[in-house]
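User: Please check token order:
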Amino acid sequence: MTVQTSSYRTLEQADLNAVVDSPDPQSRVKSAPRPGQDPYPTRLAEPLDMPWLSRHEGVVKGRAEEGPLSQAQLDAFERQGFLFEPGFITGDELAELRRELEALLDNDDFRGRDFSITEPQGNEIRSLFAVHFLSRRFSRLAHDARLMGRARQILGGEAYVHQSRINYKPGFEGKGFSWHSDFETWHAEDGMPAMHAVSASLVLTDNHPFNGPLMLVPGSHKVFVPCLGETPDDNHKQSLKQQEVGVPGREALRALIDRHGIDAPTGAAGGLLLFDCNVLHGSNANMSPDPRSNAFFVYNRLDNRCVAPFGAGRRRPRFLAHEPGERWSPETPS
């Protein structure tokens, strides 16, 4: 694995402590939630009196003897909020998945459908959702014991696929993704109660520094950054192309990145990136001629199934947030 790590350090430590730990007594703010209230308030009209809130749930809930990950790997996930395993899939299996990826992206029946998201400018597919229902091959992968075992081990219990998708960044034209926590969106718009979810991203094309690899802020998963701004109706139609609501403020981002830096795991196709639902991540535009793609599966613990959304008027369509045991198809009503 190649890791590019930020050396970004612009705040003096004294200034950082002031930003993080001392609210401005003159500001108009809201206090942190009290017991019995939503512990992760977000999409707020006014800021809280602190840039972030402490995480309530543990990160790794299982043990080394309960799954395929070693204690060292679990410790790394606990500390960083992510784990990269190069060469997770190789050879014929990888070639088959890449052929299936091309077939899905070339399927004209998917273009113009709500589960098929194109680039902000252009007709190139950016994301194809509910892919484990669209493809038998990706369904087998989503339920593969190698992935399910890792999810179960990290989450400390049985899990189901909350969301699946293919992300694709075409060469030269693939746009970036703003900094965000997936959990913030899933909590606000899908009704995911707690941080009992993990994402598995299988790299299907080589990732290098110039084709927009995923960037993560290690350690950021241990705090929750509330976001400002009311959730518009049908926000997913805009946010899946270019996210504007649910993006952390720059002050909090600057402080967290100053503390922890930025990591961007890169490497050959076939690597697996596991990352916590709450770790802050984003990506730059693809500036190279090489496309970048990955298959993405979100595993949510069964006892953490979604309820009414915490920061939106209604839940997002079903292709974005599945229920345990449901059967979805392109004809399923939203």
